[in-house]
Design brief:
Layout (H helix, E strand, L loop, with lengths): L1 H31 L33 E3 L2 E3 L9 E5 L5 E5 L16 E4 L6 E6 L2 E5 L5 E5 L16 E4 L6 E6 L2 E5 L5 E5 L16 E4 L7 E6 L2 E5 L5 E5 L16 E4 L7 E6 L2 E5 L5 E5 L16 E4 L6 E4 L1
Antiparallel strand pairs: 1-2, 3-4, 3-22, 4-5, 6-7, 7-8, 8-9, 10-11, 11-12, 12-13, 14-15, 15-16, 16-17, 18-19, 19-20, 20-21
């Protein structure tokens, strides 16, 4: 009898404990939404967030062709930096950078020029892009230089001395077509094509040493300059601005988009010097030394479209011996 009473007492204690725990569990669920007793059934856990590439610092783009993953990222246009070189009457080579090149605003990196060279009293000087500068000496030698300080206007050069990369360059006019291409107008008006394959290091390597004739009658222009990507502008004697595009620029073939050219401007005979700033930008130096900015929005197809037909004055006092874009 005593053992039976002990058993009944134990059962009662167990039932009371179960009742208390159950009630506590119910209260906890109602108040907190969580169970007050251990819960062993497996619940799916939310995935942990992983670091995203956008939350990391992006890679730094350096000049030249860089790669992000497997996507090749080309460098910015060589002429897109707004660098302009000017040769003073005493032969100093001066560096400027027009920060307002994109919209024709009067913004410059420095109010004063930075002298980056001396003794530049050459027969003709023109840019080859990417810091390369060509100069034609009085004896007809074609000289190669590379200004490593082109980005900031510092006095840094690849070599202290010029590298001779050609002879017999006694032409009426010579200008760069980009990517090592050089055009020359002979005394008889023929337009000759050359490609300097040694442009990167100043070596004496050419695609066609004798050149290729790609045009005739180019001696009638007052001024001729490249607009990039095969585009060539010519200023006639009466001041018309003519547009041409040499589709055979890469290999020197006789192929043109519009052999007769297209008239895209008038009154350009008033400028003392005219040169391209790249991406349709054209600079003109007036006889009083003003530097004027224009942008030919129809550069690709030779249409008569301009961002500011009357131009914008972006500089004064540009009475230099010679001015060209870097």
């Amino acid at each position: 009898m005593k053992k039976k009473n002990q058993l009944l007492f134990s059962v009662a204690i167990c039932c009371l404990s179960l009742f208390v725990v159950t009630n506590l569990s119910t209260v906890a669920e109602e108040e907190t939404g969580t169970s007050a007793v251990p819960y062993y059934e497996s619940k799916p856990k939310p995935p942990m967030p992983k670091p995203q590439p956008s939350a990391m610092q992006p890679p730094v783009r350096k000049p030249g062709v860089s790669s992000i993953g497997r996507i090749k990222v080309p460098p910015p246009s060589a002429a897109s930096n707004g660098v302009i070189y000017a040769i003073a009457d005493n032969g100093d080579l001066l560096w400027f950078r027009h920060d307002g090149r994109g919209d024709g605003s009067f913004r410059w990196t420095d109010n004063n020029a930075r002298k980056v060279g001396v003794g530049w009293n050459m027969k003709h000087v023109f840019s080859g892009g990417d810091g390369v500068i060509y100069a034609i000496a009085d004896n007809g030698d074609l000289l190669w230089f590379r200004h490593d300080g082109r980005g900031d206007g510092s006095f840094k050069w690849t070599d202290n001395n010029a590298r001779k990369v050609g002879v017999g360059w006694n032409m009426k006019h010579v200008f760069s077509g980009g990517d090592g291409v050089i055009y020359a107008i002979a005394d008889n008006g023929d337009l000759m094509w050359f490609r300097h394959d040694g442009r990167g290091d100043g070596s004496f390597k050419w695609a066609a040493s004798q050149g290729k004739k790609v045009g005739i009658g180019w001696g009638e222009f007052k001024q001729v300059f490249s607009g990039g990507d095969g585009v060539i502008y010519g200023v006639t004697i009466n001041g018309d601005l003519m547009w041409y595009r040499h589709d055979g620029r890469a290999d020197g073939s006789f192929r043109w988009a519009a052999p007769q050219g297209k008239k895209v401007g008038i009154g350009w005979g008033e400028f003392k010097q005219v040169f391209s700033g790249g991406d349709g930008v054209i600079y003109g130096v007036t006889t009083n030394g003003d530097l004027m900015w224009y942008r030919h929005d129809g550069r690709a197809d030779g249409s008569f479209r301009w961002a500011a037909p009357q131009g914008k004055k972006v500089g004064i006092g540009w009475n230099m011996q010679h001015v060209f874009s870097g």
